[in-house]
Amino acid sequence: MAPGTWTPDRDALRGRIAVVAGATRGAGRGIAAALGEAGATVICTGRSSRTGTDRSDYTDRPETIEETAELVTALGGVGVAVPVDHLDPDRVRALAERIRDEHGRIHVLVNDIWGAERLKGAPPEWNTPIWEHDLDKGLRILRLAVETHVITSHHLLPLLVDRPGGGLLVEITDGTAEFNASRYRISVYYDLAKVAVNRLAFSQGHELAERGGTAVALTPGWLRSEMMLANFGVTEDNWRDALVPGKVEGYPSAREGFEGSESPRYVGRAVAALAADPDRARWNQRSVTSAELAREYGFTDVDGTRPDSWAAL
After folding, report:
1. In angstroms, rounded to a whole number, what is the distance separating the alpha carbons of residues 6 and 3?
2. Residues 114 and 55 occupy one common structural domain
3. 132 with 159, same domain?
4. Domain tally for the chain?
5. How much is the pLDDT for 159?
6. Across the beta sheet with 168-172, what order do the strands follow?
7. Domain around 243
8. 226: how many CB neighbours lie within 10 A of its CB?
């Protein structure tokens, strides 16, 4: 299939209930949107809400879960925004109870919660040894990136496994298990967080398998998130301007490899493809990239390409 000829199946996930935990921006928003364009009902959770009930670690960012839910609906699905702090077990338990009352079950659960982009620091701060790294920041990275996933799975997975048919759990991380196994990633805390999430998919997949469920660790490539685009002073419409030195006044040109970056919808389409695959159990406990699944399922990014920034590494 030539790039540019693929279009989503608008009814592939019609009637399915999905939860995207951490759906405010970045990969989470892209995943919710792609599930929506496949017809799913998507419950979008996070702290950044028009209600202002929770405090996000990104207080200056404008995105909200309501915007994500509206995007899901505009693309053909049904978007539902629910403000949740996934570090609060009581809030997540209440979310589970609401979903059980309103929908009965979950077919897809995506653990995309992160929230530590600024805590990990800018490139000049990378490679700071653990004894010099700010301990409070490091421990918060682990809480945001790992503890939230555990709390969410504890309360929501019963809704995935309590009926026949098996559901899909997707753990979003940075780097495959194979890639991360032999490479130090930014700091001890960041490294541990991303390795831990890959392992969560493996261990939860072991527990889900006998109940017909599937767990997959999925990593996007170089993601053109809202925050990344802002770093280079561009938008999704003109992001290639960041590749040209001096093209965007006041901003540095993108580092080598940015030309192979991907939109958040690309990893979202990977999740949608897995969810629609009746034989998805073959991926159980695997650690894969959005590009790998694009080759398998034939979907493209929003511009019709199939980028693979991991291949360059």
Report:
1. 7
2. yes
3. yes
4. 2
5. 97
6. 78-83, 41-46, 17-21, 108-111, 168-172, 214-219, 287-289
7. 224-259
8. 19
